[in-house]
Amino acid sequence: MPPIDNLYLLLSEFPASFCSLTYAEVTEPHAEGKWSRLQILGHLCDSAINNLSRFIKVQYEPQPLPLTPYDQNQWMDAQQYSKTSPEDILNLWVSLNQTVLRVISNLTPTQLSLVFQLPQGGTVTLEWLIEDYLQHMKHHLEQIIPENA
C-alpha cells in the first residue's frame, strides 16, 4: 500500500481502537521497566515531531541533510506522557500525523529523491525515510493494539 494511503488508513482506524481500551490498559506498562501503551503512543508523537521537521527541512536545506538522531528516553522524560491524559496524547498523535500526511501528499518525485546523510555513514532518500517512519509507526501501533497495525 502506498505510504499516503497507509497513513490515511491508520489515522482513520487507530483512534477508535485506542479509545476502546480501559484507562488501566492504557497506563499500565506490560512489564517492569517497559513503556505503557500511553507512553508508546507518546513516543510516536515524538517520532512525528522529529520526522515532520526532517520531511520539511530536506526540501530547503543543502543536500545531503544530516539525519540528526534524538534520544527517545530524554524526549519521553521531557514530555511527561505518563502524566498526560490519554485523550490529549491521542489528539496530538492524530494532529501531528494529519500534518505529516498533508506534507507527504504534496511531495513531487524529485523531492522524494532528496537525500539524508546517516550518522553512521551512507545516505537514504526522503522516500525511504517516509517508508521507515510508517514501518516504525506500525510496529509500535501493533504493540498498543495487536490487531490494528
TrEMBL record:
Residue ranges constituting the DinB-like domain according to the UniProt record: 17-144
Pfam families attached to this UniProt entry: DinB_2
Record InterPro entries: DinB-like, DinB/YfiT-like
Protein name stated in the entry: DinB family protein
Lineage: Bacteria, Bacillati, Bacillota, Bacilli, Bacillales
